[in-house]
Amino acid sequence: MSGIEAVRKIVETEAQAKRIVEEAESRAQEILASASEEARKIRQASTAEAEQRRVEMLRETREKAEADARSSDVETDSLLESYKKLFENRKDAAAKKAVELILGN
Amino acid sequence: MAESLEKLHNRILSDAKLKAAGVVEQAEDKSKQVLDEAQSQARRDANDILAKASLEAESIRRSILSSRIRGNRLRILDEKNKIVQSVLKSVEQGLSDIVDSDQFESTLKRFVAEAVEAVGTDNAVVRIGFRNADKKSLQSLGQSLPKGTKLLVDETAIDDLGGVVASDPEGKMIFNNSFRARLERLDNQLLTTISSTIFGE
């Protein structure tokens, strides 16, 4: 093998070695890009799931609070009804006592 | 020479492959790290969202309940107030009508005596006025008054409901013993009496 041929062979080998490293670097870039994309999807999915749970939580809370509020309305209606009956039954007695108080009896 | 060239060839390729493997391995390690961090961050983000949602839910619950409960408390207070006001109207009517009752004369004498005593003078001026009262019977009251006391009978009811007002001759010391004035003086007791009778409180 001549000297020139030996140099050519070395140059070819160096070129081949460079390609191997470049391919690996390219592959590494792909791996990182893929990981980055997967990471984005993981976070996106987790956030979406949490947001869905949030919406559900708020809906349930609102429904429960509305139910409790309706219960308060019913209790109040019942109380007001009982006040009306008490008033009808006791208004004369209350007025009589009040008049006696004012007269100082 | 061919042999050493072949060795150099292999060495160059071997180094390149080693370097390539290192580059890929490093990328894979980095990739794993990125994914681990992403999962941790995702958990933190989700926890943040749920923690905020929990606070938001509590705020919504309080907002709905407190506004409704406040509204219902106002309804109850409004109804109680209407009832008390209605009883007070009856009380005012009852006081206006006292003129026609048996206890009018004794009540009037007591009111006059209280007013004269409150003014604390020997020559008090006593003004009385009731709706639909017989003026003559009112003037006859003058006979029972302490000596020196001047009696004035109004044509109209004092303070709308009737009553007695005593003063010294100069009008500097005045004691208002009208029904209206007594209602105002006994306001707290009156409301307590009415409330306890109607609502049992």
Question: What features would you describe in this structure?
Answer:
The complex is a heterodimer of chains A (105) and B (201). Chain A has 105 residues and is mainly alpha-helical. Chain A has one helix at residues 3-103. The longest helix of chain A is centred in the middle third of the chain and has 101 residues, at 3-103. Chain A is rod-shaped, with a radius of gyration of 44 Å. The mean pLDDT of chain A is 96. With 201 residues, chain B is of the alpha+beta class. Chain B folds into 2 domains: 1-97; 101-199, 2-Layer Sandwich (hypothetical protein PF0899 fold), CATH 3.30.2320. Chain B has 5 helices and 4 strands, in the order H-H-E-H-E-E-E-H-H. Chain B has helices at residues 2-96, 104-119, 135-139, 179-185, 187-199, and strands at 125-129, 150-153, 163-167, 174-178. In chain B, strand 3 and strand 4 form a beta hairpin. Chain B is rod-shaped and about 160 Å long. Chains A and B meet through helix 1 of A and helix 1, helix 2, helix 4 and helix 5 of B.
Key words describing this protein structure:
heterodimer; A: 105 residues; mainly alpha; 96% helix; B: 201 residues; alpha+beta; hypothetical protein PF0899 fold; 2 domains; 4 strands; rod-shaped
Strand tally of chain B: 4
> Mind telling me the CATH superfamily name of the largest domain in chain B?
ATP synthase, E subunit, C-terminal
CATH architecture designation of the largest domain in chain B: 2-Layer Sandwich
Helix and strand composition category of chain B? alpha+beta
Question: Could you give the distance between the termini of chain B?
Answer: 118 Å
**Inertia-based shape of chain A:** rod-shaped
Mean pLDDT of chain A: 96
How many domains in all of chain B? 2
